[in-house]
Amino acid sequence: MFKQFSMKRNPIYERCPSCSQPNTLHRSRARSLKENIIKKFTFFKLYRCKNCGWRGYISTLKFTKTNFRYFLFYIGLVLLVILIVRKVLEIVVR
Ligand SMILES: [Zn+2]
User: Fold this and answer.
1) What is the CA(73)–ligand 1 centre distance, in A?
2) 45 CA to middle of ligand 1, Å?
3) Would the pTM count as exceeding 0.85?
4) Which of 39, 64, 66, 81 has the most beta carbons within 10 angstroms of its beta carbon?
5) Is residue 92 over pLDDT 90?
6) 52, 50, 57: which is closest to 23 by C-alpha?
7) pLDDT tens, position by position, 9-45
8) Residue 17 Cα, ligand 1 centroid: separation in angstroms?
9) Where along the chain do its domains lie?
10) What DSSP designation does 55 have?
């Protein structure tokens, strides 16, 4: 059940954005510092197509309607917790 809401995906099993061929993508090494930074700090990873030579970033996060709702729910929950903590702290300080 929980797997259904997973936002992770593996673009290796998806079609190439350029030639639309399935199973041609593989991970590409970062060539510059900028590529390394993007790779490390974002959800985008470098991929290369064996078929057409396309190279670029693909997000490893998948936003479907279901997990987007979950995502909003979690943000709402976090905000609620922050509000409660602030209220509690106000009471404690007084
Ligand atoms: Zn391709």
Assistant:
1) 36
2) 16
3) no
4) 39
5) no
6) 50
7) 788 888 999 999 999 999 999 999 999 998 888 889 9
8) 7
9) 8-62, 64-94
10) E
